[in-house]
Amino acid sequence: MDKNNQATHLKKEILIKTIKAFLSDDFPENTRLIPFDMRPKGSEVPYRCCIYKEREILRNRIIATLGFQMEGADERTLLSDYAKKAEQREKPDEHTLTVLESACKGCVPNRIFVTDLCQGCVARPCLENCKFGAISIVNGKSQIDSSKCKNCTKCMQVCPYHAIVKIVVPCENACPVDAISKDEQGHARIDFDKCITCGKCVASCPFGAIHEKSQIIDILSKIKQGRKVVAMVAPSVTGQLPCNIYQLKTGFLKCGFYDVVEVAEGADITAKNEAEEFIERMNHGSKFMTTSCCAGYNNLVDKHLEEIKPYRSDTKTPLYYTAEIVRKKYPDAVSVFVSPCVAKKSEALNSPDIDYVMNFEEMGALFVANKIEVSELEETEFEVEASREGRNYGILGGVSKSVEAASQNKIEIKPHIINGISKETIKELKNYAKKGECENGNLIEVMCCEGGCVGGNDCINTIRTATKTINEFTKNSKPIA
């Protein structure tokens, strides 16, 4: 779904107001007042039936922004109490996503449906072409038995009146691993045993009912405590805001961060290690290898694609190596990854060197709340300058090009790119694993999000604009050594 929509604007407004409340003299009380400030008595009710429903949903969005799970939450607990708990919390919750029941529309299930446009034609191609016996004729018109229907859409394709349509539930339809279903009340439920935290459900829900639990208060609390908080910025951060990466570093320092490190520095290590691994595998007879830098893809392999595991690279992610660098340099620091997607939170939860994750939307809100115009800031240089290839990791094809450059032409690399994880690309990967080869190439770059990391669910800018900005910026960067 296009990021330029009311649900995204609403999320941004709540983020800014929550951060401003934290920066104020009375965080708990000012947090409690946010729903009333946003929907004061007598104001217009833009989305729901009444102002009280609007305030309830705003309250639940704030609770998720404070980092809490909404499933099973006690409605009697005041927002001010949630704010206090968030400020005192020492460790993020296990699950990174939560469903706001009050915001969920309770959509009908995905299904094929015959509309009133059906003319009851003599040809009845829908009936003739259904292989599952799901279509019958009632009172002269087609009717579909949902218990028999396999959603093959053949009837839709052959209907001359386009009278048969597919009713789509955005979150369910977007999920590539069927991790979302309906409960007894029709509300969305996430099966975390299946979920790969790709964030597609978050990006697709037009009601904003599936919410990423924020860690922004945890991060700001550590800064307030006087801890050394180090930001590790993803390569895809370039192009998200109207500034260059050196101005962005200045912005983080102004917000109280102790230091800022490019994860592109870790990407250089990943590229070199992956190039060595690729050469070794090919020399030992392997027909292909997949990349391993995408957290969403790694979750997919670990939970659903056991057969592709032998072909996945064993090299660690750029974030892994960057976090190691930061921990070695600042042993007592709090490390924060600045991320384009929710999937990296699952990686951080399993790493002793990554404490928190701040997404790009939260980064933008942080600068707004602090009244920082990043485009007007002076530049602050990085202690270590990453390579052109490392800085290109966030765009489609950037990973395979980095590995190719790091291999120094010691072996022929034929890249093949999986541009986004979907049911179709999962079948494609399974097919490669079954055959033991990929006819399209020998190095498969797998990106969970279409367009690469710049297409992550937490990105601010469009894929096209961000990619163009990164390409222009990296022209003057040094090549990988």
Largest sheet: 4 strands, parallel
Query: Between the first and last Cα atoms, what is the distance in angstroms?
Result: 39 Å
- As for the number of domains, it is 3
Number of strands: 15
Alpha-beta classification:
alpha/beta
Shape: globular
Low-confidence stretches: none
Offer a few descriptive terms.
40% helix, 481 residues, alpha/beta, 3 domains, globular, 20 helices
Gist?
It contains 20 helices and 15 strands. The protein is of the alpha/beta class and 481 residues long.
Explain what you see:
By secondary structure, this protein is of the alpha/beta class. It has three domains: 6-104 and 173-214, no CATH class; 111-167, Alpha-Beta Plaits (2-Layer Sandwich); 218-474, no CATH class. The chain has 20 helices and 15 strands. The protein has helices spanning 6-23, 27-32, 34-38, 51-65, 79-88, 125-129, 154-158, 170-174, 200-204, 216-224, 245-254, 264-283, 295-304, 318-329, 343-349, 360-369, 388-391, 398-406, 423-435, 463-474; strands spanning 97-99, 111-114, 135-138, 141-144, 164-167, 180-182, 188-190, 210-212, 229-233, 259-262, 289-290, 334-339, 356-359, 415-419, 443-447. The strands form six sheets. Strands 10-9-12-13 form a four-stranded parallel beta sheet, sandwiched between helices. It has a three-stranded parallel beta sheet with strand order 11-15-14. Strands 1-8 form a two-stranded antiparallel ribbon. Helix 19 links the parallel strand 14 (415-419) and strand 15. Helix 1 (6-23) packs across helix 4 and helix 12 packs across helix 14 (318-329). It is globular, with a radius of gyration of 24 Å. The mean pLDDT is 95.
